[in-house]
Design goal:
One of its GO terms (molecular function) is isomerase activity. By secondary structure, the protein is an alpha+beta fold. 47% of the residues lie in helices and 10% in strands. Strand 2 and strand 3 form a beta hairpin.
Length: 276
Amino acid sequence: MTIFGAVIDARPLFPRERRALLDLLAALPPEDWSRPTVCPGWDVHDVVGHVLNDYMRRLSGSRDGYGGAVFANDETLPEYLARTNDQFVQATRQISPQVMIEMLDHLGRQLDAMWATRDLEGPADLDVSWAATDVGSPAWLDIAREYTEFWVHQQQVRDAVSVPGGDDAELMGPVVDAFARALPYTLRREDRPEGTTVTLEVTGPAGGRWFGTRQVDRWGLSPAGTEPAARVSMDQDTFWRLATRGITVEEARKRADLTGDPALTAAVTTLLAIVA
């Protein structure tokens, strides 16, 4: 039994996910770039600018060791990210879609090269706070988290312009798997006897089952569980949208099948896999 579960190697999928994004963006007519997205106050152009910011920030920090913007006095991590993300997005409003596409293509290949040098089981460059706050994250989870970031933003663009795609099991499966690693942290406030198990089932080609099991002093992931005290089942589209708050907790609960201990099922359906 571990906190984070088995290794996810998302590295081979970055080029394919990016190719799908670049092909999508290259085909968009000018008017689609101004369509609103689920991200409050951001249109398609803004979301693409944010992805470009993600590329630049990871290369600057993880490859070049550059610290970047500093925290303001008493600023929390969510406040810091909201401020710095918005500042960058506002700046990219001066950049054409074509230039952003070219920069994503160029910098994305540099990111691929950087990820390839990483020891997956070494320490993360950036800990994944939605999976644990009291222990360091492994590099593979940090890299998988970055993959989910890029994939989710592509889906937000696709939703905005009504062009489905990029959601086959190979591309989406690691996103669902990575988000499920938030299960132990999601259950952290629920004290239960050691061995108590909660099953999270995500249905669909990209789905699977994950078992949160109570250890002596914390929850962890186990390969399989005993008879679960609670079970939560939802389809893969509902799950990733819940984890990123593309839908509300209440909407996710309406779509889910919840059985067993009501406090545990309620906790599972608050699962969050972003910093908010």
